[in-house]
Amino acid sequence: MIKKLCLLVSAFLFILVGCESKEVVQEEPPVQNIEEPKEEIVEESETIGIPAPLTGVGYEEVKNDRPIAVIINNDIKARPQSGLHKADIVYEVLAEGDITRLIAIYQSEMPEVVGPVRSARDYFIDLANGYQSLFVFHGWSPAAKERIEAGAIDGINGLFYDGSLFKRASFRKAPHNSYITYDNIKKGADQLHFNIEKEITPLSFTGSDSVTGEETAQVKIDYSSRQATHVEYIFNTEKQHYVRYSGGEKTTDLETLEDIVAHNIFIVEASHAVIDDKGRRDIDLSSGGKAVLVQAGVRNEVEWKAVEGRIIPFTNDQPISFVPGKTWINIVPSLGAVHFE
Predict the structure, then answer these.
(1) Closest listed residue to residue 153, CA positions, set 145, 162, 161
(2) Residue 223 — pLDDT band, cuts 50, 70, 90?
(3) Of 5, 10, 269, 277, which is most buried with the most CB atoms under 10 A?
(4) CA distance 56 to 324
């Protein structure tokens, strides 16, 4: 009897242990099905997105906004400017004397307000046309006037819309105080029957981890001996971009105080010639030549070529990709005015 009782107790314990083990097995799947992997996948897909054609940065949807090229004043009396932080590409080019003007090209993001807006030169038209841009400017040189009136580019001229589409800021004096909003750019395009949607051929981009070259923490460009014309870019290792300085002061947005940064700095040597007694220039933007490409904390000596109006880096006759982000293209008479550290 005792023997039978022992056998029954043993059997009961065996069954109980078996039940407990089954309960443990049943509890394991919920622990394995945690939500963390799903969250990581969602974040990754949002980060990748659809690359914008002129920055390579991912967005949730494709934008077919036509690029807008605005001539921005870079005189010391015009700094800090408005809207540069939104530009995909900025060309810095000499006008008269030793003062540069900026051609800010917007596509992935549009500025709420941009300026001060300045007058056009004929070679600015060529740079804007490389991206089939709507051209926004305030005044023009004789050569630019002739080309624009002949239909070389779709343009909105502040000379004809001063006080309507273009507004004068009270805190600055003319000609350093003309501004325009993106809403007024759209309004002007509608009035002039210009298309503001266009499919854009994208630039080529590559990951920054694939870029090699000579380590470069600082770039300095002296457009003249005057401090006001000196440009510097200083590398931020943590954020992997270069912060721009002009005349010894950090370049920031007037309204937001946001730093103006570049992920690609493309410095191009082109032939410059003074062509009249006003000091106006002719700049050869078609023949190609020597250049330096700075990106991801390193630099490489390259060449530049004009490809359908765009200034593109090349090496061994092959185009070089930019890294995703914002690009500043500094056009200089000589690379001898450029220094690296």
Answers:
(1) 145
(2) very high
(3) 269
(4) 5
**What's this model's pTM, rounded to 2 decimal places?**
0.85
Domain ranges of the chain: 58-191, 208-266+288-340
Q: Which residues contact 208 (CB under 8 A, 6 or more apart)?
A: 240, 263, 295, 296, 323, 324
What's the fold here for domain 208-266+288-340?
YerB-like fold (3.50.90)
pLDDT digits (tens, 9 = 90+) for 51-100: 999 999 998 887 789 999 999 999 999 999 999 999 999 999 999 999 99
Instruction: Give the DSSP letter of residue 249.
Output: E
Q: Are the CB atoms for 279 and 269 separated by under 8 Å?
A: no
pLDDT band at 48 (very low <50, low <70, confident <90, very high): low
Give the residue-averaged pLDDT of 139-144: 96
How far CA 13 is from CA of 22, 26, 69, 194, in Å, comes to 14, 20, 83, 86
231, 221 in Cβ contact below 8 A? Answer: yes
Name the β-bridge partners of 300.
293
144 class by beta-carbon count within 10 Å (0-12 exposed, 13-18 middle, 19+ buried): buried
DSSP letter at 3 equals: H
d(CA 205, CA 207): 7
3-state secondary structure 64-120: CECCEEEEEECCHHHCCCECHHHCCEEEEEECCCCCEEEEEEECCCCCCEEECECCE
Separation between Cα atoms, residue 10 and residue 171, nearest integer Å: 95
Asked if pLDDT for residue 21 goes beyond 90, the answer is no
Helix (H) or strand (E) holding 289: strand 289-295
Q: Among 46-55, 246-255, 257-266, where is mean pLDDT lowest?
A: 46-55
CA–CA separation, 28 vs 21, rounded Å? 11
Closest CA to 249 of 114, 80, 82: 80
What pLDDT digit, counting tens, does each position of 272-314 carry?
Answer: 999 999 999 999 999 999 999 999 999 999 999 999 999 999 9
